[in-house]
Each structure stands twice: as C-alpha cells, then as structure tokens.
Amino acid sequence: MTRPNDPADDRVVVVGGGLSGIATALGAALHGRSATVFEAAGLLGGAAAYSGGQVWVGASHVAAREGIEDDLDRAERYVRDIARRHPELLDDQAMRRWLATAPEAIRYWEQAGAVSWTVIRGLADYHAEADGALASGRYLTSRPFQGSALGPWRARLRVSPYFRTGTTYEDMFARGRRGTTTAGPPGGDVLTLGAGLVAQFLARALREEGVEIQLQARVTELLRDSAGQVVGARAETAAGPVERFGPVVLATSSFDWNPALVRDLLGLSPEDFGSLAPDSVRGDGIMLARAVGGAVARIPATCVPMVPGWRLPDGTVANGPEYAMPHAMIVDGSGRRFCNDSYWVDLVPRALDPADRHLPFFLVVDEQHHRKYGLGSVPPGAEYPAGLMTTAPTLRELGRALGVDGQQLEATAARFSEHAERGEDPDFGRGSIGFVNQFSGDPAHRPNPVLGPVSEPPFHGLRLLLVGTGIGCSGVHADADGHVLDESGAVIPRLYAVGSCAATTTFGSGYNSGMALSRGLTLAYLVAAELGGYLPESHGSAGDPRLVQMADGQEGGHHLSRLLHGQLVRRHDEVIQAGVARIGAVQPVGVCDPRTISPVHQAHRRGLVEPAVLLHPAVPGRPRCHHPHMNRARMPGQDDRADPPQDDPAGGSGELPERGLRRQPELVLVVEIDTRHLQAEQRLGLGRADQQPERERLSELVAGLRRGDGHRQLFGHRGRDGPVHEGHVQLTG
Ligand SMILES: Cc1cc2nc3c(=O)[nH]c(=O)nc-3n(C[C@H](O)[C@H](O)[C@H](O)COP(=O)(O)OP(=O)(O)OC[C@H]3O[C@@H](n4cnc5c(N)ncnc54)[C@H](O)[C@@H]3O)c2cc1C
Fold first, then answer.
1. Which of 153, 188, 326, 470 has a CA 20 to 30 Å removed from the CA of 432?
2. From the CB of 517, is ligand 1 less than 6 Å away?
3. pLDDT at 700 (0 to 100)
4. Given the CA of residue 22, which atom of ligand 1 is nearest to it?
5. Ligand 1 in reach of 192 Cβ (< 6 A)
6. 3-state SS string over 405-433?
7. Prediction pTM value
8. With a 6 A CB cut-off, is 39 part of the ligand 1 pocket?
9. Are the CB atoms for 549 and 625 separated by under 8 Å?
10. What pLDDT score does 186 carry?
C-alpha cells in the first residue's frame, strides 16, 4: 500500500479510546500533532471508566503539596520488593523509567488542565510489610467533575456499574464500599473515580482541534508501506472502512474478552474466568501487533490481578467487596480455606499454583452477611434471585449442594468463626491488610472490618470465578518508552503500545492497585512527548546543558525533521547499531521542529550514545520555548530574563503555553557519524518519495565526508516561509 504524500496525513493514530488512548491523543495534540482516536465501542472510557480511578505514583507533587513525604528511592524499593518473586520478569529500565517519569507525567497532565488531582488519604500500599511501603499518599485520584461539562459527549462516556456514580473515597471510607453501592440513586451528575478521571481527560481533549474521535470504529488492520513499515491503521465502521496515516499507538487494554488468549495466556477456561472490563476489550492490540511482527511478553497467571466474582443468572459477571466482608469465607472443593480470602493478591497465586491448584472455589456466607450486605444488586436482606445463590439450613447440606465436602466445610467454618469473633485469622492473615480493610471492609464492624463468624443459618454459597479487570499483565512487548518490540527485541518503528495492552514487565510479578492507570498515563505522556519531539525531564537532569529541549512543530523545521526521520529515525535501531555514534541536537533558542529531538532521544535512551552534544551558544534575547515539562537547560551565557514565565503553579488553566509558541526559523542540528560505519547510510536509503531532496542532500553530505571534504559539512534548507535552516554532519571516530 502507498501512503499519501500530504504531510497533513501524518497524524498520530490511536487505537482505543480508554484513558491511555485519550491521554496520548491529547498529549500529541498539545505538542502540535493531529491525532485520531479509533474506539471500537459506542462509548469512550474503556475499563478505565469502570475503574476505581486509583493512580499509584511515588513521590508525586500531589502528595508533597498535601504534606506527605515520599521519595523515588523509597518507591523503587517498594516496587522491587513486591516483584521479588520473579525478578526475571521485571524490566529494570521500564520500571525505573515509569517510576521516575510518573510524577512528571501526572504534574504535566494537571498543568495541561486534563485533571485535578487529590491524594486518596488513608489508603495504604498493598504490602505494608514490603520495604519502602507507605501507609498513605501514593494513591491519587481526580477531584469530582461535573458530567455536564462534556456537553453532548457526556452520553458517549462509560460510567461504572461497579461503583455508585458520584461516590468519593471519603464516602467509601466512612460508609464502606458496600454501603455506598447500596445507597439510593445519585443526585446530579458528579463524576468521580475512574469515570471522573476519564471525563476530565476527555473534556480537555475535546478542546483540542487536532483531536478527532471516531466511535464504533474497531481497528482491524495496521497499514504498512512497501517496505513493511507501519504507516497507519484501518478501522471498520458502519459507514465502511476508515484509514488514517501516521505512527500508531495501541491502547486497546488487555485480552479479557478473547477466550483463546485467556486460555493461552492465563490457562483459564470460561468456566473459571470472567471480566469486569467492557466486552470490547478483547486482545486486539496483541493481534494487531503480532500481525506486524510484534512480540508478546508473558507474565504468569499467578501474578495477574484478578478478583473473585460470580456469574449472574443472565450470564453476566459481577463483583463487589462482599467476599471480603465479615461473615464470608472462600473454600475450595475440599471444604477448606486456602488463602487470605479477602485479598486477591494472596488468592490468585494460591488458587492457580500449578503444583496445588484450588479451582473451583466457592463463596460461603451466613445469614448475617445476607442481612447486612446482600450481594451485588441484591440489597441487604432482599431475596437472592433464583439461580444466584444456593441456600441450605446447615453448612453440611450447603456443601453437598455446591459439590463441596460438607463435613470439612463445617469444621472450616467453626475454626474460622472462632478466630473471626476476635478479629483474627491465624491461618491466612485475613484482616491484616490495611488496603483491604479500608477499601473493602465494613467500617462499622468490630473488632475487624473484614472478619466475622460464619455461623448463623441459613447458609448461602456460590461458585466464584477469577475476574479480570482489564489488566492481563501478559501483553504486547514494549520497551520502557512504549515502543513495540519484535521477537528479537528490536523496536518496530512507528508502533507504540500504552496502557494495559502492553505487558506489565514494568512491575514484573508485583502489582499494587493503581499501577495500571499510573503506567497508562505515564506511557501516554512519554509516547506523546516522543511523537511531539519533546524530551521528558526524567530522561536527563534539568539544567543539564547537554540536554536541551526541542520544541514546537512548525513547518520550517519539518524538512530537517523529515530528513532525520526519513533517513535515521525510522531505522534508528539499525542506524545506531550500524554506527551513528552520536546524534546531537542543538537548540539554542528553544523553538524548532519537535521531531528532530527523536534521534537524540532514542539513541540516548538505549544508552548507546552519549547525551546530545551541544555546540551552539545561545542567542541572547531570543524568545525561548515555554513548556510545562521542558528541560530548563540553559546554554552558557543564555539570558534567562528573556524567558516567559514557567509552570503555572495553580495548574489547570488548560491553556498550554506551547499553543502560543511562535514560529522560530532557526535550527541547528548536529549529527555525528562514526566514520567507521559510514556504510550505514547506504542501508538507510529509504526515505519517502516526497523526501527525495532531503535524502539526496544527506547522501551528498555523507559522500562529501567520505571523500574527506573537511571534518564538518554544513548544509542549509530554505523552508516554505523562507527561513534558512542549517545543519551539519560532523565526523567522529
Ligand atoms: C472495576 C475495575 C476497577 C479498576 N480499578 C482500577 C484502579 O483503581 N486503578 C488502576 O490502576 N486500575 C484499575 N483497573 C484496571 C484499569 O481500569 C485498566 O487496566 C485500564 O483501564 C486500562 O487502561 P487502558 O487505557 O489501557 O485501556 P481501557 O481503558 O480499557 O481502554 C481500552 C479501549 O480500547 C478499545 N478497543 C479495544 N480494541 C479496539 C480496537 N481494535 N479498535 C479500537 N478500539 C479498541 C476498547 O473498547 C476500550 O475502550 C480497574 C478495572 C476495573 C474493571
């Protein structure tokens, strides 16, 4: 297939309109690129809109402004500690990139007006015992948001069936999560938790002219050029196929609704697995990536966040905190408990332990549980609908009806109840996990919010499923920056993965609630920055004069950008391997084509080159780029007074400064090529037809270098609106 020559078609093509996809499109637009979001469903928001909206970030500015002390080192110790079961699954670089970039990303999104953050106070990290754990301060969520602000798009946003609309964590902790779901219908249209978070990003994205959103547009194919390179995507819509061209970002979440992938990657059959995610989350990202050579990284099912849920008589799946509330326990077919049954983190690895599986397993509650809490849509004390629960006057009879050893069930309940009265579980530690007690328990129940005897007849039980939440853990193999990798570990050019469609090698075998959305927003930030040409602060120390932010995508610079992109970036791995020792970028005045930073960025990230080399002095008095996450690098002698004000500390104005950037004609690029590997250029000779002049120019340059025409070659290019751009290629080695 051929690609249109019109550069306007070079947009960012985002596959999936959940949180990560919307954020990526927004980020790209804020960096001056157009973006199309293809969303397969009729509603936006994906699993993120169904979620609790918890975003786990260490050492965030939000925690700091709320007076909570944390630091990145501590957060890293925590992540390492909880991932220690399988250190081989942890991609160290991805983990560190995420941890270091997440605080910057969430600050950026707030300053962009895409969200207003608050700390979920009093919610502890899952593993209080782990090195670096914090009792409160790492879970962020968005402040409540008025749904009406979305205008007509409000009707196109998912709202969670698992949390009552408008519920805040303050409510939840005061009344208990179950208490909020059984409360009456909400007044008004205040959006909170996951729906509120997505709504804020969506509202902000809708203000960007460059963002196009297509609903009911399932991407079924990635488009490639004659060289096999990804150049866009095709979606199926009611009106026929729609194609968009540009780099593609997969944001399709996990594979919950693809039984073949569930069987392959989790080893679970439909009898034992269900999902809380929307049914449009069906592993398309994996299939699309695979079709162009993308690899899948596997994480064992024993590490995957899945919660106990149950199938309703109509076949749908439900879940709630009821299994973790007092007067409930979980047993396997032998009638024994096998885990801390209030805590999926303990339940999943034990239930799926290949050496000692505990499938199927069952929820058993007593009449106190029924009376106080009900189940799902069944209010406290109301009759369970036919086919939902099995009820019996004794535990022995209940066991028989469920296919569980009833005699053992009685013995299990007796021991459980004796200790539960005292708020203890010496066998499995139920009641000892702060997160569970706070998020799932009954705050009114004493002495422990998740422990109460299972002793009052009649008894009720049902078979449980493991229920996915749009975090498959296995997924598209991507590197620390969201580049999709092939089986050999090489980057597939122009293909990215953000959010939960990317395998969670970032956390390895450890997971803490909030990490999915945190990583989604961080990868969205990184990928959008790269596509927009920015170098996030976390990629270099602010003020380091070797790393200078490039900014603004303006027409003049595009020629040089294309030159570098066409010839170098598209094949950057090959180039780097082939010997481009250093690709430097010099931006003394801060405004030039954004994409030109990418060679520096890419090479630097891989640790294969030195950071960008800066050779050019600043030009005092020139307007500098102003951007919230711009490196505050100063060239020697640069006049800071010329700077416009930096970050808006109040945040949320929504007017990103880069919108106001003026066209700045001058640009200097430094490309250092290791002469020992000049043959690299020949292998690069790709370039699009419309880039012929640039390609020739680069060829001439390299040829000149080969001939030994001086150590340095200068070249220039006159942009459409006149300014002269300069670059030079410099020899090293
Ligand atoms: C009840 C619940 C509570 C949760 N709570 C939390 C929490 O508090 N914190 C946390 O971090 N995580 C939580 N999660 C998990 C989290 O919501 C998901 O991991 C996250 O939403 C994934 O975000 P995403 O942007 O990758 O994908 P999603 O938000 O799921 O969006 C993916 C989108 O891609 C679309 N799509 C799929 N295939 C295609 C295609 N071929 N073409 C076009 N579009 C396509 C889908 O329709 C969907 O809209 C929770 C999940 C659930 C279900």
1. 470
2. yes
3. 57
4. 25
5. no
6. CHHHHHHHHHHHHHHHHCCCCCCCCCCCC
7. 0.78
8. yes
9. yes
10. 67
